[in-house]
Amino acid sequence: MKRNLREEQTDWGILVSKVFPSNALNDKMYIDTSGILVVKTDYASAAYLGLRHAVIHQFQVQSRLNTQQEREGAHDQILGVLKDWMQGNKLKDVFAKIDEARKATIETEDLLQKLQTYNERTVKSSREFQIKIRGWLQESTQILGELQEKLPLDS
Please, are residues 24 and 10 in contact by the beta-carbon 8 Å criterion? Predict the structure, then answer.
């Protein structure tokens, strides 16, 4: 990963992983000192957005700075802000919203499945009633036909 950062000439990278080192600050995402953001699969989109904002900010700041020392200081400052953000309540809020959205999608799928089952059962019941109604109409036609046969034609 560090080689890829050098080859791509970037200070930041995202690694999506299921396994976290024991020194990780939380169990969903952490950033190491080399600018690699390690994140669990479910939170990759939140990590991408956070890192995207940091990269844009770094580019804007670096274009205004003159010396390499100033640029390194800005990089370290942005890295510190990212670490603070990941340890703070805002990231927890983002993760909580992602978790709530995930649960809501599961509940929605469950409701849609129940609705589909209800619809299938209702359609089946309606078709059974249609068959009964057709049978009753056919029986009515036969009964009326029998009556018509018994009535004298010449009256």
Answer: no
Please tell me the pTM assigned to this model.
0.47
Spell out the residues 6+ positions from residue 32 whose beta carbon is closer than 8 angstroms to its own.
38
CA–CA distance, 118 with 124 (Å, rounded to integer)? 10
What length does the chain have? 155
Sign of CA dihedral 114, 120, 121, 122: positive
Q: What is the pLDDT of residues 143-155, one digit of tens each?
A: 999 988 888 876 5
Sign, CA torsion 146/150/154/155: negative
Token code pair at residue 137: 């109409």
One-letter amino acid for residue 83 of the chain: K
Q: pLDDT tens for residues 15-69?
A: 888 877 676 667 777 777 777 878 888 778 877 887 788 778 877 777 777 677 7
